[in-house]
Design a protein that fits this description.
By secondary structure, the chain is mostly helical. The protein contains eleven helices and two strands, in the order ββααααααααααα. It has a single domain, classed as Endonuclease III, domain 1. Strands 1-2 form a two-stranded antiparallel sheet. The chain starts with a strand and ends in a 6-residue tail after the last helix.
């Protein structure tokens, strides 16, 4: 597995070499466990938008997405109307894809249902935490991502295929997929050890 040596001389996951903005995202967000429902919903939404595109495109548009989608506050997005869809389709700052925009609005309503069912999105998705993960960055799906994808689809979520869900799980710390020699792997492992899995 390739590694990237950052400006501080520390080794990081090789994908950090793809763009300068990947380094702070990698160092401060990617792979660290998250239990906040707003952040989990945002990430699932953005991973859906990434489908067929690069993460760099989505990351560089993230602030515009947040502005357009009410900071991904679930109740606010669930209340969006056709006027909001039209507004977003005219927003040059985001990816203007009708199906993906409508999926986020649909998924916000499904998220409300999931919260009513499980208590929180976090309590639901963390049931699918990787118990015996494969070697880091060796796969694009996993048995857990396939199971979570199936569970979400059964509840009416859209743009949540196994690959999209696995990328979500990597980013939100449900699996520690930092490279073995990456400076962030031990930090992610330590955070996972101290993380209270939502119930």
């Amino acid at each position: 597995m390739s590694l990237f040596e950052g400006p501080d001389g520390q080794k990081r996951c090789g994908w950090c070499a793809g763009a300068a903005e990947f380094v702070p995202y990698h160092d401060h967000e990617w792979g660290f466990p998250v239990s906040d429902d707003r952040r989990l919903f945002e990430k699932l939404s953005l991973e859906g938008f990434q489908s067929g595109l690069s993460w760099r495109t989505i990351l560089n548009k993230r602030e515009a997405f947040r502005a357009g989608f009410a900071n991904f506050e679930i109740d606010a997005v669930a209340a969006f109307t056709q006027a909001d869809v039209d507004r977003l389709l005219a927003d040059k700052g985001i990816v203007r894809h009708r199906g993906k925009i409508e999926a986020v609005i649909n998924n916000a309503a499904r998220a409300q249902d999931l919260i009513a069912e499980a208590g929180s999105i976090a309590a639901f998705v963390w049931r699918y935490e990787a118990q015996a993960p494969a070697p880091p960055q060796s796969q694009s799906t996993s048995p857990e991502s396939e199971a979570l994808s199936k569970a979400l689809k059964k509840r009416g979520w859209r743009f949540v295929g196994p690959t999209t869900v696995f990328a979500f799980m990597q980013a939100m710390g449900l699996v520690n997929d930092h490279a073995e020699e990456c400076v962030s792997r031990a930090k992610a492992a330590e955070m996972r050890e101290g993380f209270n899995v939502p119930k």
